[in-house]
Amino acid sequence: MNPKKHPNTGSVHIRTILEDFFQQQGLTENIHRHRAVVYWDSLVDQEIAAITKADHINKGQLIVKVSSSVHMHYLQLQEEAIRNGINRKLGENTIEQIRFRLMTQEDSESKC
């Protein structure tokens, strides 16, 4: 790692150091994918955000908890459009598939 130093101060911005580290460790792709979880509510419609909670990423699959089986069925039919919209907003093909799971009561309480 040989980060570019600031010409006046000779210092290196922490962002540059972290980006280099993550790239060397092969973590960059995982970090990009995780943005879908962190920003889920702003990546999807308000109606979808109100009934769902992005849970985690596993091997390119975004796992999303859904409030009811009726909503889950509807979202499964819309999976490709939702995934394409997320990938378009994130600027890359970050998410390969979205898997919808029913929320537990505990999940529902933490959504509020």
Task: List the topology elements.
Blueprint: H1 14-24, H2 28-38, H3 40-43, H4 46-51, E1 52-58, E2 61-66, H5 69-77, H6 79-90, E3 97-102, H7 105-111
Parallel strand pairs: 2-3
Antiparallel strand pairs: 1-2
Q: What report would you give on this structure?
A:
This protein has 112 residues and is an alpha+beta fold. The chain has one domain (14-111): 2-Layer Sandwich (GMP Synthetase, Chain A, domain 3), CATH 3.30.300.180. The chain is 54% helix and 17% strand. It has seven helices and three strands; from the N terminus they run ααααββααβα. It has a three-stranded mixed beta sheet with strand order 1-2-3. The chain is elongated and about 60 Å long.
Gross morphology:
elongated
Helix/strand order: HHHHEEHHEH
Domain count: 1
CATH architecture assignment name: 2-Layer Sandwich
Q: Could you list some keywords that capture this structure?
A:
54% helix; alpha+beta; 112 residues; three-stranded mixed sheet; GMP Synthetase, Chain A, domain 3; 3 strands; 7 helices
What's a quick, concise take on this entry?
The chain has about 110 residues and is α+β, with helices and mostly antiparallel strands. It is about 55% helix and about 15% strand. The protein has one domain: GMP Synthetase, Chain A, domain 3.
